[in-house]
Design goal:
Layout: H1 20-25, E1 49-50, E2 53-55, H2 61-64, E3 72-75, E4 81-84, E5 89-106, E6 116-124, E7 146-157, E8 169-174, H3 178-194, E9 202-213, E10 216-228, H4 231-245, E11 250-251, H5 254-257
Parallel strand pairs: 1-11
Antiparallel strand pairs: 2-3, 3-4, 5-6, 5-7, 5-9, 7-8, 9-10
Length: 274
């Protein structure tokens, strides 16, 4: 009886080692499934812009144009009223990204006046000290007339809007509001995890406080844990988590790109944590 030939097993070619720097800089790809409300739409995830929740300041363009009032929380794209100093806004944070926003100082228009600034770029904060792009230790003032803000951007859903589709918002914490960002990060990534809960297990209230200094009167953001998230709220979050983790959304940065006033250095906070 003739012996059957043994089937040759093809050995897989060795997988090339991945350069961690190239991985950091390469555009992210995603196979994530969009939320059900988008599945039948011809609009792709690359077309999605996430609006910010903007706290209206005295010099905010919408306040100057009588389209909003000082102390209100407004949708950066639609100008929808979401809350105010007097009316806290309920939100569920589920993802955090940290960035530097850089500006170039411009000469003062006339002697004695405050200099202006021009938006330069937004850079991700690299926290790995072994990376050649490590920048977690940068400070407010840089070289060549560069000034920068350390920013914690939190993706969140508004429970009041879940029945309307639950579009995410960005709550951007910087300068004097950076402390609110550290409160959020501590709850999400320390307290929740120690309790064996998801980062998005707690719903917060977005608060605001009016404060004044020699440069004017400002709204400073604050946050306060309110309640546990419901199963429905968590399910809504998980659909968006897949898209955002894959880099399939863009953030509306029109507020920082249009900003020209220099309001002084932010509060000095420890950058080693979060």
């Amino acid at each position: 009886m003739a012996k059957s030939k043994k089937k040759e097993i093809e050995k897989p070619s060795p997988t090339p080692k991945e350069d961690p720097v190239e991985k950091q800089l390469a555009p992210r790809q995603t196979n994530a499934v969009a939320p059900a409300s988008m599945m039948n739409s011809q609009v792709t995830s690359q077309d999605i812009i996430i609006p910010k929740v903007l706290a209206m300041q005295m010099m905010s363009k919408k306040v100057i144009d009588d389209e909003a009032s000082f102390g209100e929380f407004r949708d950066s794209l639609e100008n929808e009223l979401l809350g105010s100093i007097k009316q806290p806004m309920e939100f569920l944070p589920f993802h955090m990204e940290k960035v530097w926003i850089e500006y170039v100082l411009q000469p003062a228009p006339t002697p004695g006046q405050q200099p202006k600034k021009k938006y330069l770029r937004t850079l991700p904060i690299i926290t790995d000290p072994s990376s050649p792009d490590y920048n977690d230790n940068w400070r407010y003032e840089g070289e060549n007339n560069i000034v920068r803000d350390r920013v914690m951007n939190f993706f969140c859903l508004l429970p009041s809007q879940l029945e309307l589709g639950g579009m995410p918002y960005i709550i951007s914490c910087r300068r004097t509001s950076l402390r609110a960002g550290k409160k959020l990060a501590t709850q999400m990534f320390v307290k929740n995890m120690m309790a064996k809960k998801e980062p998005y297990a707690v719903v917060f209230d977005l608060l605001a406080e009016k404060t004044s200094n020699d440069q004017g009167t400002f709204v400073v953001l604050d946050v306060k844990p309110k309640r546990q998230a419901t199963a429905e709220e968590k399910a809504a979050v998980e659909g968006w988590m897949k898209m955002i983790a894959g880099g399939a959304v863009k953030i509306d940065n029109s507020d920082v790109e249009e900003e020209t006033d220099v309001v002084g250095a932010p509060i000095d906070v420890d950058t080693k944590e979060f």
